[in-house]
Amino acid sequence: MDLKFVTSTEFQNNAGRFLDEARKIPIGIQKHGHKSHVLLDIDEYNRLKSMDETNARKAKLDALKNESFERFDDVYKELAK
């Protein structure tokens, strides 16, 4: 995904234009030469947030599975004897 960077001054002077452009590609904003913010379309934001939440749920489930196996590992070993 392409990312177009503009200075904070450019953004302030042309906010409407950059809001329109952000519907197509994310707009990065630099302040004092440092990349500081990204403006993106709300649909893209929601898609990324959903992916993040899905990955977090998967990680929690994996951790619970591993914890369950570790907790009962000694029991499984005893039963296997």
From TrEMBL:
<protein>
    <recommendedName>
        <fullName>Antitoxin</fullName>
    </recommendedName>
</protein>
<comment type="function">
    <text>Antitoxin component of a type II toxin-antitoxin (TA) system.</text>
</comment>
<dbReference type="InterPro" id="IPR006442">
    <property type="entry name" value="Antitoxin_Phd/YefM"/>
</dbReference>
<comment type="similarity">
    <text>Belongs to the phD/YefM antitoxin family.</text>
</comment>
<dbReference type="Pfam" id="PF02604">
    <property type="entry name" value="PhdYeFM_antitox"/>
</dbReference>
<dbReference type="InterPro" id="IPR036165">
    <property type="entry name" value="YefM-like_sf"/>
</dbReference>
